[in-house]
């Protein structure tokens, strides 16, 4: 190592391998541009030395290797400012030396290039699907980001959680199909081009499936002539870096600016942005997986390991992050703070969030430090925190996920109970009644408030809504695992014919069941979440685990919007109806008529016990519309039986009568009455609920 000093230079700077360096900013992780230089900071408890390795873009050999002087290390932190380098023409990685003792979880190898876990961009990933065998690949490298984006006077919507209508989508699949009509398909820019569609539909929050840098080529393989990739992106390479192949711009900072532009314009249109984040495992996999980052830093700190040094696999993906270790804790906190401050993200959905509550031996903790820190962190104070409250290791916490009054949950019991009820299964009426009014049997309103339940019937994982009523069985043959992958308990029903059919009666029934599902979901208390494409009948041909299908199976076919306009209009009308009626979103002021906020009814009003048929359920919502100074009363009548049932309605106060808002037994154009003045008055105190149909009524002044 060549060192020299110059009296003309700052006395704290020295020369190392031809570069002027000085001690850096020890409290700032990652690569940070400073006046005249770049600060590189990284930490490792087990390493005995560290080298910074610098590359010109796309070049295989480094242009500089700079060992950290021992005096530049404080505790376990290496920090160094390097002068005289061009940030825009530099990619970087590290080499760390230390003990190699796999039985103790120590995997240091000074020949391996290690990606900075705090890198803000990852080099070489901007071309989707560019494939090389792992043993021939260039190592992942970090890029140096300039945070110069102008947010202007952009304000975040800051919507109440109860007022959200969440729309889950895959960045690439949303616009990749030629029918999407955008100029930049499969990109962040492609989504920006569809903002008008979001507004027309009525959704006010988009939930993006993973956009952290991931390796879509990790499990690259050919099946029946089709190339399969890790399309969904649940294999994170770097938590601080956006996936550069989702940008249409390929310039140095292109993905950063493009993503921020999308978020800014969504906010300007009143739409929040929620990210699906994967802190339960990484792309490094198990003992046979590649070195990318954590394995070469502190493998025994970042991952849950058995006493023999093997990886616990509570994620089902080879490894499990040791989330409640303080080091990993800090990384996750700093990551989320970064996305909130640098990208103005409004919320996070945590994949397999129960893993975030496991101890170092894998056991569940009653008060997980990470979850508590996230709940109380001041930067995250107004951010939505949504847990997928289970994991692949058998831990299921729906209704019991540690919350501190801040965490919401994907309500898996809502999905399962409603799916079974809506296809006609018996014995679910009482459970469904609870699900529709916000699942108070799961979420104590005193301790969990109105924001605990995210209600959904479909999501990326499982059948689409159209497939839910077109297939009895999953059809994942295209995935290459002999149809052994994916959920075997989808609670679906094919309406008498498996898959595609020309039978008009079957097709009509399927459309009715889709509208039934939309009606119940958007009339349920809690926060509804829709899967993109469900609003116009998108199908995946029965594939309920399309994680590897970067093709027409997963891409939204926008011609379906033209084919199924009635389904789209029904969804849009129901979303607008929900927004117009606060009693569907929270417990508003008490109704002057004395009705309780919610009540349940069978074929006779105010009576479930004597109902003739347990597949019939009426839910009455009642509250006070203070703006219009009148009671707001809605009746949701559901008959999931294959026979019609006459239902007696609750008696309304004098001067009010029930009017028909929606009737899924009717055909297109008559299933939802858009104009209140056109809604017909229910004659008498009884209605006939047609087989497998839903009737939505509102109490209105008698004409």
Automatic annotation (TrEMBL):
- Sorted alphabetically, which InterPro entries does this protein's record hold? GH, GH13_cat_dom, Glyco_hydro_13_N, Glyco_hydro_b, Glycogen_debranch_GlgX, Ig-like_fold, Ig_E-set
- Name its species: Diplocloster agilis
Q: GO molecular-function annotation terms?
A: amylo-alpha-1,6-glucosidase activity
- Report the family membership: Belongs to the glycosyl hydrolase 13 family.
Q: Name one GO biological process term.
A: glycogen catabolic process
The Glycosyl hydrolase family 13 catalytic domain, residue ranges: 168-578
Q: Which UniProt keywords apply?
A: Glycosidase, Hydrolase, Transit peptide
Q: Could you tell me which SUPFAM superfamilies the record lists for this protein?
A: (Trans)glycosidases, E set domains, Glycosyl hydrolase domain
Q: This protein is called what?
A: Glycogen debranching protein GlgX
